[in-house]
Amino acid sequence: MSAMLGLLLLIAAAAGVFYYYRKHSPAVKQRNADEAQRIAEIAAQEKALFWGFRIVVPQGAVECDAIKKVKDREFEQDKAPTLPLPGCVFSGTCRCGKVKLKERRVKERRGIPDRRDGLRFDPNSTPRRSGIDRRKGTGKWEDFTGL
Prior knowledge:
The structure is a single chain. The protein is of the alpha+beta class. The chain is 37% helix and 11% strand. The longest helix has 24 residues, at 26-49. The termini are far apart.
């Protein structure tokens, strides 16, 4: 009986050593690092697909005063409040949620390069933003146009 118990303890110790070295081997650490990087890349891709969140309350759910202020509002991803909101009286059973808002701007909207620099009228005239506030003058447009 004693020999059987000793053999069982020896097998358990060997299994523990095997588990420890397998868990902490460089290959496992590399695999975990690769997995973490892959998860971060997927999160970055998903973040690029969605620009923000809309706060929604399910049909028929009871609304607290805190959610009434932000219900159906849209927030950027980094500025969306966490749910349940502080001050929610239903924090244990809150059914409010966030709906991801899909990014609609997927390509450059301007088909041609910006031409604003080439459209300036007379290079010898005073700049359009000369610093003179026309609202503080006499109010006559002729004072500013030079006509």
